[in-house]
Amino acid sequence: MAPVLLQQTVVPSFGRHLVAALLLLLIGLMVLCSSELVPKRVSLQGKLNYKDAHVRDIWTLVQLGTGVVYKLPGQPLDSPGYPVPPASIVTLDCTPDPKMPTNCTKISRAEVSRVVAPVARVGTDMKLRLLVMVVSYMASSSCGARAGANVDDVLNAYTGDLGHMNFLHNCSYGQVTYSNVTVISTSLPCTRYLDQCDEESIALNARTSATNQYGPAFMSSYSRFTYVLPYGLLSACGWVGLAELSGTQTWYTPDGDGVFNKGTVLQESLHNFGIYHAWCNGSEYQDNSTAMGLGNSCPSAPELRRLGWASPLAQLDNSTLPTRTFKVFTLPATYITSEGNMIRIQPDWLPKRNYIKNLYLALRMQGGGDRDLLDEFDGKVIHTRSMRDPCKQSCW
């Protein structure tokens, strides 16, 4: 084997220093770049909003002062670990998505500064001023055009003889009414977020367009805002109606299951007042006796009471219904009167750990707001259970 010649190469001192300097510069750039890739937490304070999209829960924070909407990965937990209720004013740390700064990929250190009751009594003589924006999309480089619903058809759905205004008036016994319903056409340049049914982007762009067209004074004259989506977004949205719980905004698809369905519109409107979906036999939506389930009829007895629209004929508990006591009550149909149209039973004679629900008895009959009550409930006393705390209802 031929000998291998080894030769020592001497690197000049200046060269060694230059190589070392370049290495340090390269390491510094790598550290700088990697630190820029790590998102920094930001502190936010605002109102916590919740929307039940039927296929997923949507939690957002509307920042105080700016009105900027931040999407949250889930419901915030306070320092003891309890879920923060919707509509609360909360301060939290948000780790933003570098590509979308208003999307929080992680939230922490939530502190509640003001808790809002889950269900606020609506009371009497409440006038709603509703602006309905019928949205359509103009073609852009991002996506194609999408037509919107007919403005006159939407207006008639609200103001017709048996429309949404009439339905709300009857179900609330005239205590909550629409004093003004205005329907306008709102055309928006299509964007990727709009075409993906980002409800907050739809609302922001629609309100901005309406403000530019009609002026700030026009917009501030309304207390409720509804957005009717363009055609063809049902698969992207996954819902036919959406609402803030509690809040002032609702969204609908432009079809017979969405804005043209009185049960859907009443359900989303009552979400704005803090009412949850109705349950039956452990399944959400399956109470067909109320619009808070899958019915086209007025709210159930516990829902009416929570809204402050109706009062019990009797409240029975351990003190008012002693053992071996027999009482007779005459119940009017709920659609006839708001006074004394239900019996509320508080079974406080049970062990505390077992007393988790109150019971309601109410007579339902077809008529008034209940003109479309299903035959299976007509002329029958409905037994409804409700959690002691304001949350989801269920029925037997």
What coarse outline follows from CA principal-axis ratios? globular
DSSP helical segment count: 9
First-residue to last-residue Cα separation: 96 Å
Backbone CA Rg: 29 Å
User: Beta-sheet strand percentage?
Assistant: 25-35%
Query: Poorly predicted ranges (pLDDT <50, ≥5 residues)?
Result: 1-11, 31-36, 391-396
Biggest sheet descriptor: 7 strands, mixed
> Based on the structure given, which CATH architecture of the largest domain is correct?
3-Layer(aba) Sandwich
- Assign a percent range to the helix content: 10-25%
| Helix/strand/pairing category | alpha/beta
Average pLDDT over all residues: 87
Number of strands: 17
- For the record, the CATH class of the largest domain is Alpha Beta
What would the CATH topology of the largest domain be?
Collagenase (Catalytic Domain)
Task: Give the ordered list of helices and strands.
Answer: HEEEEEEHHEHHHEHEEHEEHEEEEE
Organism: Volvox africanus
Protein name: Peptidase M11 gametolysin domain-containing protein
InterPro entries: Peptidase_M11 (IPR008752)
Pfam families: Peptidase_M11
